[in-house]
Design goal:
One of its GO terms (molecular function) is FAD binding. The chain has 15 helices and 17 strands. With 482 residues, the protein is an alpha+beta fold. Among the domains are: 155 residues, FAD/NAD(P)-binding domain; 68 residues, no CATH class.
Length: 482
């Protein structure tokens, strides 16, 4: 999460800031406006089409009907930029400590210091489970040289090239790739430039391959530990949240030398308000939501994926960018990211079970003593499944006799190994059957108190696909003043 550079902008007592779109990025922008740009909080307006905050980033479900973990959401909220943001916010539970210290204390209490706090990574191939060590890079000399060569390439060279164009084929069977792709969602067809950025951002800081725990990339963690506390802080400051409001008809000045946003319409139901911007006003757009167009299934039915190509499923984060991008050439190319679903589709699933024999069998299978949970990469899976077995509980409302597992698949458009349908056509029960087949687990009678909820996300890895350098706009577009 990059910090906007507001220090160079002149702000006055009359400055108003308009933030379009939802998510933690929008909230972070508001925090920086308050703390760095000294904008008066009531003059910061966050406009969101959702009816209330809980619908923005997380729909958790329930233990009885099945939780929906919203797993593998990108970008991953980890690293120094996120830590710096959280360190500026007050704790939600006590006076004095920051929100970062509160989270770190909770993690320390959750996992005793003497225990192993690194997530276990395992690969299951040909019926055998093998632990993957994370203390080193696990790369051959040949693979290290290939990786170093990527690190020294220019961005202009890498941006439109796929990772698989620059690395040998057997690199993608290496322990390094197995772990890196499980944590960050990279695939061989993704952008080499984005892959290099992730290496540069995380490797120097963490010094090992085990960077994230199972909870780090879950909807519960992001919403309950990050999004909700930041939202409550901004609300307490008096930031103006306008839910159920849509931004339309953004107007850009015709001054080719210094074009700027001059106005827009705010639409709520049948009401429409035209807003003209002042000279010192600020507009921030959170563009390109990765969860746009998501479709949820049930234990007995697949996601309603047939409508995923419909334009009306673009959320505000895309519609605003598409609208403004059509009017002004300096704001990137949203079509490069939102129309390539064969490359960006990910399907996640959440397994909620009271059949404790399933959880116990999985724990016995992986033989992992880590309190941070375990990732299992099903190496023979046509669907490219990663299964996470996190420490329990996962949800704060989760009963003691309930266990929650989750995972995701990067190839949902192909048939399974044990279920003769493509993943997008499968119910939650079908997905569980496929996973149990790979793990060689069979139950008679069948598991009766287990619910699996699938979620198809057509643009989940849109951040990672190949692009031209100008397809993604700068954080502060050089061609735009506001």
């Amino acid at each position: 999460m990059s910090q906007p550079q507001f220090a160079d902008r002149g702000t006055t007592q009359d400055t108003e800031a308009w933030i379009f779109g939802s998510g933690s990025e929008a909230l972070a922008s508001a925090v920086y406006l308050i703390k760095d740009a000294k904008v008066h909080p009531p003059k910061i307006h966050i406009i969101d089409k959702h009816l209330f905050s809980e619908r923005i980033s997380h729909r958790p479900g329930s233990w009885s009907d099945g939780y929906d973990q919203f797993a593998a959401c990108l970008p991953v909220p980890a690293g120094l930029p996120m830590e710096r943001l959280l360190a500026t916010l007050p704790s939600t539970q006590s006076q004095g400590p920051s929100l970062l210290e509160e989270i770190q204390t909770a993690e320390a209490n959750r996992v005793p210091k003497k225990r192993d706090v690194r997530t276990c990574f395992l690969a299951m191939t040909k019926g055998s489970v093998n632990h993957i060590p994370t203390d080193s890079l696990n790369l051959s000399i040949k693979h290290r040289i290939a990786l170093i060569q990527i690190l020294f390439k220019r961005e202009t060279y890498l941006s439109q090239r796929q990772v698989q164009e620059l690395l040998p084929e057997n690199f993608f069977q290496s322990p390094f790739w197995t772990i890196w792709s499980a944590q960050f969602g990279f695939q061989p067809w993704h952008s080499a430039a984005e892959f290099r950025r992730s290496i540069r951002q995380y490797m120097p800081q963490f010094h090992s391959l085990s960077i994230l725990s199972c909870l780090d990339i879950t909807g519960y963690y992001q919403y309950e530990s990050l999004y909700s506390p930041i939202y409550r802080f901004l609300e307490s400051c008096g930031v103006d949240f306008r839910f159920g409001v849509e931004v339309k008809d953004i107007q850009v000045s015709k001054d080719d030398a210094k074009p700027k946003v001059t106005g827009f319409n705010l639409v709520k139901g049948k009401q429409q308000l035209r807003k003209q911007l002042g000279e010192n006003d600020i507009v921030i757009m959170n563009i390109g939501s990765t969860i746009s167009g998501s479709a949820v299934g049930t234990n007995n039915s697949s996601p309603v994926w047939q409508s995923l190509d419909a334009d009306d499923l673009f959320d505000q984060n895309w519609s605003v960018w598409l609208d403004l991008g059509n009017k002004h050439n300096g704001l990137g190319n949203p079509y490069n990211f939102c129309t390539r679903q064969s490359e960006t589709m990910v399907e996640s699933f959440t397994i909620t079970t009271q059949d404790l024999v399933l959880y116990d069998d999985l724990r016995s299978l992986i033989k992992c003593r880590s309190e941070a949970g375990a990732f299992i990469f099903l190496g023979d899976s046509n669907w490219k499944i990663n299964l996470c077995i996190p420490a329990q509980p996962v949800f704060s409302s989760q009963p003691e006799d309930v266990r929650v597992l989750w995972g995701f698949a990067h190839a949902p458009r192909v048939e399974g190994n044990y279920v003769n349908r493509i993943l997008l056509h499968c119910s939650g029960a079908d997905i569980l059957s496929e996973i149990l087949g790979h793990l060689n687990l069979h139950y008679n009678p069948p598991l009766s108190r287990t619910v699996t909820i699938p979620r198809a996300m057509p643009r989940m890895s849109s951040l990672f696909i190949t692009r031209a350098l100008n397809d993604r706009p700068s954080i502060t577009p050089l061609s735009n003043e506001s």
